[in-house]
Design brief:
Length: 265
C-alpha cells in the first residue's frame, strides 16, 4: 500500500537502533526524507548506512531545548520542513522500591522519557500548524496502564507522556496535526537486550533462558512466548503517519502481543 507520504520529511529520535531504525527503514521505502538523531555519532552513521534513501544524521541531546531546536533547524534547512516527528528515544531508568529511588532517579527518566517530547513539540508543531499538516508520534509503553512495581521512574514518566500527547491531540487536530502514541511491550531492542543480559547475570543462566523465564514469569499475556520485533512496531508507526490514518488522533495503539491483560486503554 502506498502511504501517500512520499516527499514528506520525518524526524526520528533514538534512530541508531531498535524501533527508531526499523521505522526509518520503513519510511525510506515510502520515499520519505529522514532526519535521524541520537547521541552517538558513529553508531548513528552506521545505522544510516543500512537505509536506502536520503538521510541527514544529527547528534542531539533531547534533554536540552537548545539542542532540540538546532536539530529541527538543521532538518528543516536540509529538506525544507519537518512534517513528521517520531520520538523513540528513551531509557528504562533506575529500578527498585519506589520510595527508595532518589529524586535524581526520577528526574533522569522524567527528562528523557517525558520532557524531551515537550521540547520536540515546541520545536516542530507550530510550523506544522502553519502548513496545515503534521504527524507527531511518541513511543510510550505497556507500563502506562500496567505498571510494574520496581519500574516506578519509567512508569510515571511514560504515563505522563501518554497524557501529554492526548492533551496535544485536542487542539492540534484543528490545524491538521495528528498526535498519537504507540505502546510496545518487550520488543527486541538494545533496551530489552540490556534488561535480559542483567537478568541472565542475576539468575546465572543464558540470555535465551533469561528471555524464556521472563516471559513465563513476568509477561503471561504474551501467549506467543517471544519478544516482539522492531519491524512489527515500525509498521504500525508508518500506518499512523500516513495520509490514510487521517481520522486517528489522540489514540494509544498497543503493539504488545497481548501483554496488557486488561481492556483499559
Amino acid at each position: 500500500m502506498d502511504l501517500a507520504i512520499r516527499g514528506k520529511t520525518a524526524l526520528i529520535t533514538g534512530a541508531q537502533g531498535g524501533i527508531g531504525l526499523a521505522t526509518a527503514k520503513c519510511l525510506a521505502a515510502e520515499g520519505v526524507n529522514l532526519v535521524l538523531s541520537d547521541l552517538d555519532a558513529d553508531a548513528l552513521s552506521e545505522a544510516a548506512s543500512e537505509i536506502d534513501g536520503d538521510a541527514l544524521c544529527v547528534t542531539a541531546d533531547v534533554t536540552h531545548q537548545g539542542e532540540v531546536d538546532a536539530l529541527v533547524r538543521q532538518g528543516a534547512g536540509r529538506f525544507g520542513a519537518i512534517d513528521i516527528v517520531i520520538h523513540t528515544a528513551g531509557v528504562t531508568g533506575a529500578k527498585g522500591d519506589p520510595l527508595e529511588l532518589s529524586d535524581d532517579d526520577y528526574l533522569h527518566a522524567w527528562q528523557i522519557d517525558f520532557f524531551s517530547a515537550v521540547r520536540l513539540a515546541r520545536a516542530t508543531i507550530p510550523a506544522m500548524r502553519a502548513r496545515g499538516w503534521g504527524r507527531f508520534i511518541c513511543i510510550t509503553s505497556e507500563n502506562t496502564v500496567q505498571p510494574y512495581w520496581e519500574e516506578a521512574v519509567y512508569n510515571t514518566a511514560k504515563a505522563s507522556l501518554s497524557t501529554f500527547i492526548k492533551n496535544l491531540s485536542y487542539k492540534e487536530a484543528a490545524y491538521g496535526v495528528l498526535c498519537n502514541t504507540v505502546a510496545p511491550a518487550f520488543v527486541a531492542s538494545p533496551m530489552t537486550d540490556g534488561m535480559m543480559k542483567q537478568r541472565a547475570e542475576q539468575l546465572g543462566c543464558s540470555f535465551e533462558q533469561a528471555i524464556k523465564s521472563f516471559l513465563e514469569e513476568e509477561r503471561p499475556g504474551i501467549v506467543a512466548q517471544r519478544r516482539g520485533e522492531a519491524d512489527e512496531v515500525a509498521f504500525v508507526i508508518a500506518m499512523l503517519v500516513s495520509r490514510h490514518a487521517s481520522f486517528v488522533n489522540g489514540s494509544n495503539v498497543r503493539v504488545d502481543g497481548g501483554s496488557v491483560i486488561s481492556v483499559q486503554n
